[in-house]
Automatic annotation (TrEMBL):
UniProt lineage: Bacteria, Bacillati, Actinomycetota, Actinomycetes, Micrococcales
Enzyme Commission number(s) of this protein: 1.4.4.2
Species per Swiss-Prot/TrEMBL record: Rothia endophytica
Protein's name in the database: Glycine dehydrogenase (decarboxylating)
InterPro entries referenced in this protein's UniProt entry, alphabetically: GcvP, GDC-P_C, GDC-P_N, GDC_P, PyrdxlP-dep_Trfase, PyrdxlP-dep_Trfase_major, PyrdxlP-dep_Trfase_small
Subunit details: The glycine cleavage system is composed of four proteins: P, T, L and H.
Gene (name only): gcvP
Length: 944
């Protein structure tokens, strides 16, 4: 059986049954009715014939074999670490963790929310700051976010500039430059050894340690900056903070950095979870997601995402950031690493790294090299006039990559897996003898003396048995794709096949530092080049960058390319982006981040772009129009007939067309945005191309462009000179290929599906959505459809009249679906009071029918409220979800039977999922915001 037969849910007679229900005799006939003829692809995509799972794995193994795995001591933001097998197998390789969605529905997400809270608390404890988020994309973009946050939050100095440490990581400097220039925020790269620069400083960004490993006393700088009214950010190595004084205790307002060295492989640059922690009062401006603690309907502590009104989907262009996908799965793994090791284990690792670095420093100084800095953590820099290339080459002969800082300087970073043999081989290759360290102890005034990570969660799980069971207990609380369909509109929660996932753990792919010499990463180059060519062919564009590590980052990169294109043509006045009012909030937030203004375009009654309003906006904004951002198929789940006209109108006005690729799963092999009018699109590899969502990340959002925009794609920030000059535009994330470590998943998916399989995936996704729409239309009106009455790959179920008649809301339906063992559809987007359903191509007819049955039963329960049989407040819907504890309690005083609460349909008696908490009080959690792990007694039923 071919892979595509394994990937698709409906097959054979199931497909025929679904088509018959819709009144069509063939899939081709249905697709002809759904997709406008003027955008249809003529012929098949030019892709290789599909491979079997075994053939694909053999081919990707041949690419992996072309890479050379060395001992990595390059450092520069990426450090050698060990992924504990219990974490790799039970989190990173476990579909219960990697196939889950962002925990917007908290009752079915308690396990991953607790894991993310562990991550937050690790960060808070080590940075000494009281609030941390649930991860960001990478250290460089986190630092850029901090620069913008300080600009927004500083009420003392409103029109000044920020100063950033010249010792920051090279890629951090590049990303921060790009972000600041896009927003027209003044900044200065500063050698803080000469003190603070003169002028009105609103913010200061300090590196601790510096990129060359120097550990410096930054407390006087922080104190002086605060006296001048500036806010202070410290970019800190989190592991070093197990030994060094925390930024919070030094007076910093913000701390940022990476958690890569908490058990996450190099993965040729990513994905790795970044962190940000802030002082009290900044939480409502903090970018990204925050896990908070509230209570459920029984008064028990329960976790949820807090303060959501900060986010882009609410505030659009006024949002705190454009972050949509973060790095949740990697944050969960990093948090688990902290839980598994605990404070004493982390401190022991840090001490061992420092001791080994001191031993290497002692040995190499004895050979005649000069130590650049006496104080260091794990990274040591040496002065070697004219010998840097020679020393790098000698280290390589010993199988070790070290870093060349200049013709006269080298540095090396000691890692967790670097054994005595490795250190000895390196030192011998450089002409020395490894022995005990002589000096180089960190000064006592730089060391922390406070306790940290005292919560029981960081002390309970030392044995692998206990850790394995803890992770299993957490995953049992959640609903992921390994249990049920996740019918989320706009998010395409399709199969993440095991064969696709396996290669990302291979050392030949996972063990490559992003800054290795090119000849050591030939396999990565071959894979990336081939995947890039395939994506270009699928989309119909001319070039692509794989750098953006989220969909929103892809939007930002595409909009920056549009802006740069206009500026190069002398059209500097083109600064307005037209965005339909129905668009995802990241569109507007990304435009603002790129320094562009936003003008909304109305939505017509059928859900399409209001062409007359578009013409009016074009007339109004004229030659200030930079472009338009459209989602296709539309945010309302419809292939708009007038898309070509919309593109042409904007082109005639001198603008560029950005086609949001969120819904590409309805187009593969059927239409190409680069051919029907698009100039640029981002693609969501974590949606259309099978990379899993991981509870909210990793995401990959490559940006594809026409030939005229290719020169404006982001470059490699590590290669910029001291003034920030780079042959290509400045980067938008810190690694040239972003989250390269998960690209093998998409490579495997396309290699195994081929052109025909991709087209079939789109066709079945469209068929499944229309089947659900047809079956439920009589109970829940389908809000939008094309001229033929058909939808694309998703449909919007309108509950507003039912709500008006009964008081039962769309949110009530979402909570009740949990009792049926389903993750809820997308709630109230793009239209309040509705549910948007996307079944994808991977769900079988039996699963689709199970969902339809649940929705039919829920409608009957709503009808009981309408008929007056029960009030809305006392109904099974308003009381949902029902925990096992509730339905097995000795007392039962509800007007419906326990059986209806727990087993509303017979099949649930064979396979039942219970939420671990009842309905959570979201508003109460925001009013009483708590983002730290509650004490164990909070869960003691006797004490409550």
């Amino acid at each position: 059986m071919s892979f595509i037969d394994r990937h698709l849910g409906p097959r054979g007679r199931e497909t025929e049954t679904m088509l018959s229900t819709l009144g069509y005799d063939s899939l081709a006939h249905l697709i002809d009715e759904v997709i406008p003829s003027n955008i249809r692809l003529d012929g098949d995509l030019d892709l290789p014939a599909p491979l079997s799972e075994l053939e694909a794995q053999k081919k990707i193994a041949s690419y992996a074999a072309q890479n050379q795995v060395k001992h990595q001591m390059i450092g520069a933001g990426y450090y050698d670490t060990i992924t504990p097998a219990v974490i790799r197998r039970n989190i990173l390789e476990n579909p219960g963790w990697y196939t889950s969605y962002t925990p917007y529905q908290p009752e079915i997400s308690q396990g991953r929310l607790e894991a993310l809270l562990n991550f937050q608390n690790t960060v808070m404890e080590l940075t000494g700051l009281p609030v941390a988020n649930a991860s960001l994309l990478d250290e460089a973009t986190a630092t850029a976010e901090a620069a913008v946050l300080m600009h927004r939050a500083n009420r003392k100095v409103k029109n000044g500039f920020f100063a950033i440490d010249s010792r920051a990581l090279p890629q951090t400097l590049s990303v921060v430059r790009g972000r600041a220039e896009a927003l027209d925020i003044p900044f200065e790269v500063t050698d803080f050894s000469q003190g603070l620069p003169e002028g009105d400083l609103y913010g200061v960004i300090l590196a601790a340690p510096g990129h060359d490993g120097e550990v410096r006393d930054i407390e006087p700088l922080i104190k002086e900056a605060k006296e001048r009214g500036a806010l202070v950010t410290v970019a800190a190595d989190l592991l070093s903070l197990t030994l060094l004084t925390s930024p919070g205790s030094l007076g910093a307002d913000i701390a940022v950095g990476s958690t890569q060295r908490f058990g996450l492989p190099f993965w040729y640059g990513g994905p790795h979870a970044a962190y940000m922690a802030v002082t009290k009062g900044m939480e409502r401006n903090l970018p990204g997601r925050l896990v908070g603690v509230s209570k459920d309907s029984a008064g028990k502590p329960a976790y949820r995402l807090a303060l959501q009104t900060r986010e882009q989907h609410i505030r659009r262009e006024k949002a705190t950031s454009n972050i949509c996908t973060a790095q949740a799965l990697l944050a969960i793994a990093a948090g688990a690493y902290a839980v598994y090791h605990g404070p004493e284990g982390l401190r022991a690792i840090a001490n061992r790294l420092h001791d080994n670095a001191a031993r290497v420093a002692t040995a190499l100084v004895a050979t005649g090299l000069t130590l650049v800095h006496e104080n260091f953590f794990d990274t040591v820099a040496f002065e070697a006039p004219g010998r840097a290339d020679e020393l790098v080459a000698k280290a390589l002969e010993a199988g070790v990559n070290i870093r060349k800082l200049s013709a006269d300087r080298i540095c090396l970073s000691i890692g967790e897996s670097h054994s005595e043999e490795v250190l000895d081989a390196l030192v011998n290759a450089l002409g020395g003898t490894l022995d005990e360290a002589e000096g180089y102890e960190l000064p006592s005034e730089l060391l922390r003396t406070d306790d940290y990570m005292s919560h029981p969660v960081f002390h309970l799980y030392r044995s692998e048995t206990s850790m394995m069971r803890y992770l299993r207990a957490l995953s049992d609380k959640d609903l992921a794709l390994d249990r049920t369909m996740i019918p989320l509109g706009s998010c395409t929660m399709k199969l993440n096949a095991a064969a696709e996932m396996e290669p990302i753990s291979w050392p030949e792919l996972a063990g490559i530092h992003p800054n290795v010499p090119a000849d050591q990463a030939q396999g990565w180059k071959a894979l990336i080049d081939e995947l890039s060519n395939w994506l270009v062919e699928i989309t119909g564009y001319d070039a692509i960058s794989l750098q953006p590590n989220s969909g929103a980052s892809g939007e930002y990169a595409g909009l920056r390319a549009i802006r740069a294109y206009h500026e190069a043509n002398g059209d500097t006045q083109r600064t307005v982006v037209l965005i339909p009012n129905s668009a995802h909030g990241t569109n507007a937030a990304s435009a603002a981040l790129a320094g562009l203004g936003v003008a909304g375009v109305a939505t017509a009654p059928d859900g399409s772009i209001d062409v007359e309003d578009l013409k009016a906006k074009i007339e109004k904004y004229g030659d200030t129009i930079a472009g338009i951002m459209i989602t296709y198929p539309s945010t309302h789940g419809v292939f708009e007939e007038q898309v070509v006209e919309v593109c042409q109108l904007v082109h005639d006005a001198g603008g560029q067309v950005y086609v949001d690729g969120a819904n590409l799963n309805a187009q593969m092999g059927l239409a190409q945005p680069g051919k029907f009018g698009g100039d640029v699109s981002h693609l969501n590899l974590h949606k259309t191309f099978a990379i899993p969502h991981g509870g909210g990340g990793p995401g990959v959002g490559p940006v594809a462009v026409g030939a005229h925009l290719e020169k404006y794609l982001p470059g490699n920030g590590f290669e910029a000179d001291a003034e920030g000059n780079l042959a290509a535009p400045l980067p938008i994330s810190q690694a040239m290929f972003g989250s390269a470590g998960v690209l093998p998943i998409s490579w495997m998916y396309i290699a195994m599906t081929g052109a025909e399989g991709l087209r079939e995936s789109s066709e079945i996704a469209i068929l499944s959505a229309n089947y659900i729409a047809k079956k439920l239309r009589g109970l829940y009106p389908v809000l939008y459809a094309g001229e033929t009455g058909l939808v694309a790959h998703e449909c919007i179920l309108d509950l507003r009249q039912l709500t008006a008649d009964s008081g039962i809301t769309a949110e009530d339906v979402c909570k009740r679906l949990m009792d049926y063992g389903f993750h809820a559809p997308t709630l109230s987007f793009p239209v309040p009071g509705t549910l948007m359903v996307e079944p994808t191509e991977s769900e079988s007819l039996a699963e689709l029918d199970r969902f339809i049955e649940a929705m039919e039963h829920i409608h009957a329960e709503i009808q009981e409220v309408i008929d007056g049989t029960v009030t809305a407040e006392e109904s099974v819907l308003r009381q949902a979800p029902h925990t096992a504890e509730v339905v097995t309690a000795d007392e039962w005083d509800r007007p419906y039977p326990r059986s209806q609460a727990a087993y509303p349909v017979p099949a649930l008696r064979l396979n039942k999922y219970f939420t671990s908490v009842g309905r959570i009080d979201g508003a109460g959690g925001d009013r009483n915001f708590v983002c730290e792990c509650p004490p164990m007694e909070a869960f003691d039923l006797e004490a409550n």
